[in-house]
Amino acid sequence: xxxxxxxxxxxxxxxxxxxxxxxxxxxxxxxxxxxxxxxxxxxxxxxxxxxxxxxxxxxxxxxxxxxxxxxxxxxxxxxxxxxxxxxxxxxxxxxxxxxxxxxxxxxxxxxxxxxxxxxxxxxxxxxxxxxxxxxxxxxxxxxxxxxxxxxxxxxxxxxxxxxxxxxxxxxxxxxxxxxxxxxxxxxxxxxxxxxxxxxxxxxxxxxxxxxxxxxxxxxxxxxxxxxxxxxxxxxxxxxxxxxxxxxxxxxxxxxxxxxxxxxxxxxxxxxxxxxxxxxxxxxxxxxxxxxxxxxxxxxxxxxxxxxxxxxxxxxxxxxxxxxxxxxxx
Length: 329
Fold this sequence. Notes:
Blueprint: E1 2-11, E2 16-18, H1 23-28, E3 32-34, H2 42-55, E4 65-69, H3 80-87, E5 95-99, H4 105-118, E6 124-131, E7 151-160, E8 167-174, E9 182-183, E10 200-202, E11 208-210, E12 215-216, H5 218-240, E13 249-252, H6 257-266, H7 288-299, E14 308-314, E15 318-324
Parallel strand pairs: 4-5, 4-6, 13-14
Antiparallel strand pairs: 1-7, 2-3, 6-7, 8-15, 9-12, 10-11, 14-15
Helix pairs in contact: 5-6
């Protein structure tokens, strides 16, 4: 048995926020972002993405394991995946687990699903990604506000009786020493809300946030990406025995247009099929790769692709990549 992606759906909040015209919009390529309402949270988005998957023909009774990637859980405990089992009406016989990871999270989820399926524990895994970074961002911090959008995705990964790999060449990377470069400093057990004073932060560009908001060092994240992702691309090609021209499409984490274009050149992928379309979503964190994957397939009609490279990178610092065979979609 081999694990294959069978179907993907996604859901975006209805509210749109337009980025103002200017240098930043032109450089990032992000024109608008979907932002959840005040009373809308990540699990609400996940429910709607999963319901779209079930409406497309997936039998919810067939789900044997639910995996949720989010950094916006409903509670510290219980696990949000357990609550989603009930809200979605899934069998009580399923496994359900959350994991806290960002932009590399989708590939990590594919790796977890592959392990569950190919070790014969289950046959059908529902992988959900859901994020509401907008709730972490101060409205006056224009260093990050125009970059991030909210969204959720639902992917069915299923067992197929074949010797041909469906998810392969998986490569991981972690460098926790860079965790400070993309962080919400206050709110966990290290610095609890109740005992941590609010600190105001103003930068030289007129941006404002507090220590309870999202902070990102854009230059540090850019450097980390350019230092690690080209090597990961080579490692995936080496593991799979493929050459650049053998890959049907390259679908990387949709951070912003500038970073993707620079990364394409740095990885030696100029002229190869490479997805770069952030204008309507922005950076949707763990949902960005599956959203891009879905849109890429829609843009390519009935074309069957057996070698699509995925890559995610960001908060952690964490990165991951793999090849997927999409011939069953």
